[in-house]
Amino acid sequence: MSERSIASLPWAGILVAATFIAGSVLTPTVLDRLRPAENERVPLADGFELDVDARLWEDPFVAMRRSESERVEGCRKLDDEESKESPSCSASLLTQRRSPELLIKNLNEKGKGEHAETLVIAALVPGNPFVGAQEYRRRTRYAMVSGLQSMGYLPDDPEKLGILSFDYSLGAAKGRQRLDVPYEVFSERPQLRGDQAPRPGNGKSWTRMALLWIDEAALAVPKLDQFARVVRLLLGAPNAEFQPQLVVIGPSSSDALRRALADLTHASERTLEDEVKDGYRYLLDAELLSAAATAPNKRVEGAQWSTP
Length: 308
Known about the structure:
By secondary structure, this protein is α/β, with parallel strands linked by helices. It is built from 11 helices and 8 strands. It has one domain. Strands 1, 2, 3, 4, 5, 6, 7 and 8 form an 8-stranded mixed β-sheet that branches. Helix 8 (223-235) crosses helix 10 (274-285). It is globular. The termini are far apart.
């Protein structure tokens, strides 16, 4: 071979190819995988009716209202027969899918039937469409999700919310007072290689937890009575063998706290339905946390309700 032909060879390309082969074939190296295996990730929600598209830090009420508007518009395009068979349009099927009892049942099944490992967080927030209320809800959700993540809990589906529908009217008004509540489900995150242990909490651990966003403004007066009824409809009869633990985040303002204390102070003067009494029993055992509401100590200490 002549010197000219040798000099014309693509030496740069040959060196690049040789380096690649030497690194990938001649000296194989086991690298740590960056993506966890499928069985190490938190699985998507199984059995929960999470059908509302929502970004992780989005206002849950804005997402719910947008989804409901799209659902109603889609149902209008269907004829009567199709509407009756559609899970999203049939009133009976929709009520069944959004049943609070179904949520608790699924939470308990995922917790292996042990309600002690199930936590329900009821976050009381203003549901008004005002800009300030929307910002408050976004900030509250950011704080809640971040706090749960620091404790080792992740949303089952970070892009979906569910809706619960409560019928908390009585007698002839049955079915006329409904409260739609967006919610999300969290699970204990599996420990991955290289992860630091989550921050220690109060010594308790839950397999599953549900975070409910309850509109304070939508509750009828007296609001604390109506909230107690919603809690009873969610958790069922208080004499059940197992019950999930309840944590209430709220009220969202000092005015809301003062109204709740006034409702509690005068509760003995009203004739309370059994559902409301059961709800108050749940609230007596619940943890109430609020960073945005204050009231005088005398007002708090003077607000008492005793179980009959």
